[in-house]
Amino acid sequence: MSPVDDKQLMRMIECHQEVLSEGYVVQTVQDGQHGLAYTIGRFAQGLPELIVSSPDLAFARKFIDYVCQHWSDDSVEASLPRGYCKLIELKVTDELIEDYMTDTYHYFAFISQFPVHSLHPVKRSLRVLQLVYGDRAGRFPSDEGYDQRNSPQVAFAMKV
After folding, report:
1. Environment class of residue 67 by beta-carbon count within 10 Å: exposed (0-12), middle (13-18) or buried (19+)?
2. What domain count does the chain have?
3. What does each of the 160 residues of the chain score in pLDDT, given as a tens digit?
4. Cα 135–139–144 angle (5° rounding)?
5. Cβ(128)–Cβ(100) under 8 Å?
6. Does residue 142 lie in a domain region?
7. What does the alpha-carbon distance between residue 100 and residue 130 come to, in Å, rounded to a whole number?
C-alpha cells in the first residue's frame, strides 16, 4: 500500500464527516464491464462493511442503501428482499482490500491511527459481507446453473 497523499487525506476527512452524519459512505468503482460498490465506515459502528458487484453502479449503490436503511442486528436476513439476495461473509485478504476496497482500508487507518502501510490490523478487525443477488430463476452465483448473462456479478470466495 502506498502512503496517503494530500488529496487522499482530504478525501478521508470528507468521508469521515459523511460517516458521522450518515453512518456510512458508498464508494463505487468501475473495472471494465464489472462494477463494484462498497461501504466505508460501518465498521466504526461495529457493523460489517458491505460489497455488491454489478455492471449497473446506480443499482449497486441503491441496493446497499436499501440494505443499510433496513439493517437489523437481530435479524440481518430480515433486512434483505426475500428470495432475491443473500449475504456471504468474505475472507478479508490483502487482495480484497488492495484491489477492491482501498478507501475502506484508508479510512480504517485514518480513524484508527494505524500506519497506512500495515494491512494486519485491518484484516484482523474488518468484517465484509457481499450482497449477492439471484438470476431470473432464483439461483445465486454459487449455485449450479446460475445464469451470468442476466445477473453478471463477481462473487468473491466465501470465508472458510
Report:
1. buried
2. 1
3. 445 567 777 877 888 888 888 889 898 888 777 788 889 888 878 888 899 988 888 988 998 998 888 876 656 666 666 667 788 888 877 777 777 777 776 676 666 655 555 555 556 677 888 888 888 888 888 788 888 776 678 777 644 3
4. 120
5. no
6. no
7. 12
Domain that holds residue 120: 6-133
Q: 13 in the Ramachandran plot: left (φ > 0), alpha (ψ -120 to 50) or beta?
A: alpha
For residue 126, give the amino acid letter: L
The verdict on residue 138 lying in a domain is no
Q: Residue 65 domain-assigned?
A: yes
**What grid cell was written down for 153?**
456479478
User: CA-to-CA distance for 61 and 29, rounded, in angstroms?
Assistant: 11
